[in-house]
Amino acid sequence: YWRPIVLTSDQRSPDAFPLAGGAFWFDEVEHLRRNHPPERLPASAMQADKRALLTTPRGPILGLSMAQPRLMGILNVTPDSFSDGGTHHGGLQAITGAKNLIGEGADIIDIGGESTRPGADMVPNSVEIGRTVPVIKALMGTGALTPLSIDTRKAEVAEAALYAGAGMFNDVSAMTHDPSSTQLAARAGCDICLMHAGGDPKTMQQDPRYDDVLLDVYDYLESRIAAAELAGVKRARIVVDPGIGFGKTLEHNLALLRGIALFHSLGCPVLLGASRKRFIGQIAGVDA
Fold first, then answer.
1. Which residues contact 49 (CB under 8 A, 6 or more apart)?
2. Which burial class, exposed, middle or buried, applies to 258 when counting CB atoms under 10 A from its CB (0-12, 13-18, 19+)?
């Protein structure tokens, strides 16, 4: 495992390599191995193929260049999501919420019709479609240029949303919940986001454990990329998400944040969903 030591200074080292072809760079890497202490090495010590995964520019996602960070606005059209449940549960409220997010700078709007908060119950496909598809159609009808993503674990829901105008299939189960999801993504030619979750939302926070959370999540995402590619999804269309707060303790979340640069070595853009998560309040001492 190779974690780049990422730097942002304009004064680059002569031995620097660009991170994903962008403005950030690295000239050292942390070589991680299970049951061994980390080893800091010159980036030139990496195998060329491994280094290429870190340095190659990422292709566009949802038509957006990945040469700079992008902001995803979350629109939960549910009555029970953890931070905004009920706020956008309805057509007019959802449209207003989406417009507010766009006005605040969101590059992508991610629309979800089933809560994945800890302890949440699954909802029928028809209910999830009924919550999300009318909102997607309405937003497409406004002529808004901000691309849309559908947050679902179900191929039937994703297919309806993609047909309505969404461009990305964002699956918190990394397409393990519904075995037909990878085939749908390949057939539709859409962008996808593969997230790690330590179990089902109903039970994922019941004593989550890992041998090494950073490496375990990396291995899982690597395996899900391979499964998607096997189904015909091109790696250039894949985003990965370590799943902050999904089957993780406070310590797990912090370990993932400290080591987040490791996931660049998967050769995909990295989505980090940390906004309004409970662990932030725990750290700040304002939320038990």
1. none
2. exposed
Q: Name the residue type at position 221.
A: L
DSSP-derived 3-state class of residue 235:
helix
Q: How far apart are the first and last CA of the chain?
A: 35
Q: Which residues contact 219 (CB under 8 A, 6 or more apart)?
A: none
Contact 89, 120 (CB under 8 A): no
In this structure, is the dihedral angle defined by the CA atoms of residues 131, 82, 277 and 87, taken in order, positive or negative? Answer: positive
Q: What angle do CA 217, 73, 96 make, to 5 degrees?
A: 150
DSSP state for residue 261 in the 8-state scheme: G
Closest CA to 25 of 4, 49, 46: 4
For 168-208, what is each residue's pLDDT tens digit?
A: 999 999 999 999 999 999 999 999 999 999 877 666 677 78
Q: Radius of gyration over alpha carbons of the chain, in Å?
A: 19
Q: Read off the tokens for 200.
A: 């089902």
